[in-house]
Amino acid sequence: MAQDLQDTITLNNGLAMPQVGLGVFKMTDEAEAVSAIQFALRTGYRLIDTAAIYENEQSVGRAVKESGISRDEVFLTSKVWNSDQGYDQTLKAFETSLNKLQTHYMDLYLIHWPGTDKYKETWRALERLYSEGAVKAIGVCNFQTYHLEELLADCNEVPAINQIENHPYLTQEELREYCQNHNIVVEAWSPIARNKLIHEPTLNHLAKKYNKSVSQIILRWHLQNGTVVIPKSVQPERIQENSSLFDFQLSLEDMKNISALNKEERFGPHPDQFHIGFE
């Protein structure tokens, strides 16, 4: 478990991945995005998570390049969008993302959503990119257990990551257990549930007990579950706050109390119903 911001989790291929990173969803203003990313890098963040559909890979590339931090010290993730799925289209989409990020390789490349029928072809393209060394690890997002079962029955490389919506109202315990049993690291998007749990009594009680914010309590819960987190913010004070997670530890009882808040409540789309871009 991470003890500071640059500590890592080891993926199933031996690659070290920071356990805490910065998500950049909805950071569409280039100046604001570059400023936020560079502040995060100065604070000690080394994982930046973007995607083709976020339309800010260029900002990420610029921020890293101008930060003065060596490229090999920054862990860059991007994702292939739904409309680019399929073998040839994925290879082209990857090149486009690489150019926008101004880099020669990616650390992690993910399938953004499973859709219905193209993800195996897309995965073959990711396996090729991985075998050629263009990307250091490959994985998926929003895959349910049955998607993973179908993929594992037919793949050469087991996904290193499954990035899913995960927070105290959506603990996804069965899916997380499946991933753990198959050596797939879970990464949480929307890890603090878009700040919608700010008034949750249990979390407020724990925030007072540990003298931390509700967000810090939730993020610490994720870390102790072995989950990678990528909270998004453009505010320097929030970026700083989201990184101050290493001077306290939740008790086993408090971990259980947080997990007991599960309501199977999503704030994003359900993977089985999300087909935007596939049509």
TrEMBL record:
Residues 27-262 form the NADP-dependent oxidoreductase domain. InterPro entries: AKR (IPR020471), Aldo/ket_reductase_CS (IPR018170), NAD(P)_OxRdtase_dom_sf (IPR036812), NADP_OxRdtase_dom (IPR023210). It holds the Pfam family Aldo_ket_red. Gene3D superfamilies: NADP-dependent oxidoreductase domain (3.20.20.100). Keywords: NADP, Oxidoreductase. Belongs to the aldo/keto reductase family. This is Aldo/keto reductase. It comes from Bacillus lumedeiriae.
